[in-house]
Amino acid sequence: ITIERSLFEQNVAEHDVGVFLVRGGGLFLQLRGDTQARIVDTTFEGNQARTDFAGNQATGGALFAGLSNAASLEIRRTSFSSNSAVAGPGAFAVAGGASIWPWSSSPLVMEDIDLQGNHLVGPAAGVWPATALDIHSGFSGSFALDRLSFYANDSGEDGVNLHLEHNSPSPASARNLLLATGPRRAADVLNWGSGAIALSHWTVTDHVERGLRLW
């Protein structure tokens, strides 16, 4: 699957009664087997995942991608701007920009990505969800991020610009990142597995509560 030189603008994924999760306002990908997917030179702008159904979580205003088996996803030279996730009463929203889950032995590659002005409505008290980008790798999944720019995503609000959660024996990396003028926290990096995460050449600035949390 190749998506190239495309625009996803002002699309909405909205709740249905009884649906617990609303995901991927601009694009929803469920990749399995040996599927190879690429998103190149593409813009996601003004998309929304939303629900007003009590207890419903909204995830990935622009993009939600679930990868399993050996499926792979590459995202290059792509922007996510002014996308949002809106949760129902009693629930919380995650990733106004993108939420991606490289599971099984799936690799994720993201290069030259711009994330600006993405927004959440409905963070629950005590919850710090990702406002721009949320990545969860598991089993033997991995991610490699290079040259990502985060700017003005939910400035000053309760949340974290970037959430990386790695539970895999495979190595992962996040290099050449700019996180600026965002929510109260810049980045959370959690490593539950035996695979190392390499973080290099980060600039983190103008987050009023915390720059980086390593767990």
Q: How is this fold's topology laid out?
A:
Blueprint: E1 2-4, E2 7-9, E3 12-14, E4 21-23, E5 27-31, E6 36-40, E7 43-45, E8 48-50, E9 57-59, E10 63-67, E11 72-81, E12 84-86, E13 93-94, E14 98-102, E15 107-116, E16 119-121, E17 130-138, E18 142-151, E19 160-167, E20 172-180, E21 185-191, E22 197-205, E23 210-214
Parallel strand pairs: 1-6, 2-7, 3-8, 4-9, 5-10, 6-11, 7-11, 8-12, 9-13, 10-14, 11-15, 12-16, 14-17, 15-18, 17-19, 18-20, 19-21, 20-22, 21-23
Task: Give structural attributes.
215 residues; mainly beta; 9-stranded parallel sheet; 7-stranded parallel sheet; 23 strands; 0% helix; globular
Mean of residue pLDDT values: 94
> Which stretches are poorly predicted, pLDDT < 50 over at least 5 residues?
none
Helices and strands, in order, run as: EEEEEEEEEEEEEEEEEEEEEEE
Quaternary assembly: single chain
Describe this entry's structure for a reader.
It contains no helices and 23 strands. The chain is globular and about 40 Å long. The model has no long low-confidence stretch (mean pLDDT 94). The strands form four sheets. Strands 1, 2, 6, 7, 11, 15, 18, 20 and 22 form a nine-stranded parallel beta sheet that branches. The protein is mainly β. It has strands at residues 2-4, 7-9, 12-14, 21-23, 27-31, 36-40, 43-45, 48-50, 57-59, 63-67, 72-81, 84-86, 93-94, 98-102, 107-116, 119-121, 130-138, 142-151, 160-167, 172-180, 185-191, 197-205, 210-214.
